Amino acid sequence: MPATIRDVARASGVHISTVSRTFSAPHLVNPETRVRVLASAEELGYRPNRAARALITGRTHNIGLIIADIANPFFPPLIKAAEGQARHRDYHVFVADTNEDPTAEEELVHALAKQVDGVLLCSPRMSNSLIEQVSREVPVVVINRQVAGLPCVMMDVGQGARSAIEHLLGLGHRRIALLGGPRGSWTNREIRRAAGAAARAGGAELTLLGPNPPTETGGGAQAEQVRRSGVTAVLAYNDLMAIGLIEGLDQLGLRVPQDVSVVGVDDIALSRLTRPKLTTVATPTAAAGRTAVDMLLQHDSEPRPRGGGRSAAVGDRRTTAQVMLQTELVIRDSTGPVPETGRTRPGGTPESPGPHRLADPGGPARTTGGVVAS
Amino acid sequence: MPATIRDVARASGVHISTVSRTFSAPHLVNPETRVRVLASAEELGYRPNRAARALITGRTHNIGLIIADIANPFFPPLIKAAEGQARHRDYHVFVADTNEDPTAEEELVHALAKQVDGVLLCSPRMSNSLIEQVSREVPVVVINRQVAGLPCVMMDVGQGARSAIEHLLGLGHRRIALLGGPRGSWTNREIRRAAGAAARAGGAELTLLGPNPPTETGGGAQAEQVRRSGVTAVLAYNDLMAIGLIEGLDQLGLRVPQDVSVVGVDDIALSRLTRPKLTTVATPTAAAGRTAVDMLLQHDSEPRPRGGGRSAAVGDRRTTAQVMLQTELVIRDSTGPVPETGRTRPGGTPESPGPHRLADPGGPARTTGGVVAS
DNA sequence: CTGAAAGCGCTAACAT
DNA sequence: ATGTTAGCGCTTTCAG
């Protein structure tokens, strides 16, 4: 069992408060006693118990980062950026993965609550009211979602989706599908809203496919639906789904971008490695991570009143900023001009339409949760 | 500031110990008082402070997972598996990323130490003596490394590397490069040892290239060296490097597997998505995560003696098991027969050898840290 | 500069 | 079934 402050005090012949000072306010202790204390501490392998310390100081110097799916390459840059920023300010980051499960999410906030000074809720799947509730237990900054009254860092995926649709319109596409993401995703709603409006404005038809799990599998599973729907372009909820979809289309004999154009969202590193390279809406993930940490720790340097209860120091809400980070469409190889005269379908099946597919789509796609907007 | 147990006691007119019992041993309290207490708690938004609780029980019901690089897709399956197993046993997992930095690694162990009941050290980069030292502060299970006296979960990459080399030998390759990973990696040493022995046994020459950062960039950066070295096959430290290398070779005009065969290690999901699909040594990452959690929590159900200091309950060393998990070579499309007559190099440069490259290699490659084994 | 004392929020004997 | 008491390991007034 690890040595405690008392063991060190005994070994070095001083009172425990002197040992305490040696570690938390070294300048307040006589240099000679300090070295004696340090020596005993070293010898006993003593390390201050940060949990006990936090109980009284109210500060752990840790921050929690809760994310929906650690396997999604979208998150690592955000995590790294948050870690870097936290490190600058002498904080450590603990990451928790929720597996896209709202229940796990809530549990994890509570598990983390008293082990950290604040929590970054990244792409939360729980309800707004629950978010508000947990924010009364521990300071929270929300990433990738707007919650009234709470500090939020968002990325303007609405603008991104608009640019994507306009890009596709410019290439002549008029029948476009939106490959939706998971239920409960704010990003998903934003994309749908903005893409719908842009399509409407451009006189295009937007077919909604989803909700889907935001993974390659989720994207690939909709390849058949995309084929049936007769669209010439697809905007996917994220790059992973876009890549999965391209794979799936490939297996159906449909080429990207010759037969179908595909746009993703996120600009994960992988999107430059696949063939074709993915056209996608780049989101400023690293900036989001840094900003969120800054917002959480903005009052870090202020003094704390005594008497327990975490004070205004971390996550105070006097200045509940909500910041919207800009996105940017990066055009690569997965988008191209609309096929001239409808398309011949190499992987043709009985449902496969003739060359006049474009003129005679045979009605909107029927999908679980599918909708036709405009 | 959050409500404490005292607030609830006051509000419901009972002693704080009754409130405590209501939450930690509900069956010991009268149903009627229980509902009263619960009601006040609900109303006040009271949540037991798990840090304070841990201070006395010695159990946080959290476990820490320290990994070298959260951006490496090798880890997520391990993380998910650990989380799942932990969840079964009513534990939560906090992940910390070290960025391949031994210093950050040590800091994070200390930051986590008292917030968790034990730590899983995954592919640690710090020295064995440091690992032993931190293991005196908090129970530790080491993954992907062998440390005497500590519980370890390893994957038999040695066997995997041997299979990979034998596979290449079977395809006729006699000049093979080993694309090394990061310094301080146990896996790296194992691979080098086993691959060296297998190459020697098969009468092949093994050129060592490295150390390198275990990333796509790290792999791609060695493409030129690989070309110069005149090898016909490469075994990479991991899939990421293998994929990066294939990219790099592609840009030099070398085709995989026609000109060069490439084998990775890990079998990350991505290795099935790239073209060509990667031949690789599949490591049982999920099993490793589960096993490590089991080893850490093996004495979880035992009673704990009173008097502070975490006891035998978690991470006890009475049974310091070291388990070695099996690996398996999965053959896909990135390996093929050795080029018949040396290879014509589409991307040929002044250094480019003629068709008799194989017979006249012009000496071993000179690389930073490069060695020629056998 | 150092010691004494109080207490962070909670649990766990021990009584009653 | 509930209250009393004594701390877990540490920090922080307050004296001296």
UniProtKB/TrEMBL annotation, chains A, B:
Domain HTH lacI-type: 3-57
Sorted UniProt keywords: DNA-binding, Transcription, Transcription regulation
Pfam families hit by this protein: LacI, Peripla_BP_3
SUPFAM superfamilies recorded: lambda repressor-like DNA-binding domains, Periplasmic binding protein-like I
Annotated spans, Disordered: 298-318, 330-374
CDD domains membership: HTH_LacI (cd01392), PBP1_LacI_sugar_binding-like (cd06267)
The UniProt record lists the keyword Transcription: yes
Name of the protein this chain belongs to: Transcriptional regulator, LacI family
Organism: Micromonospora halophytica
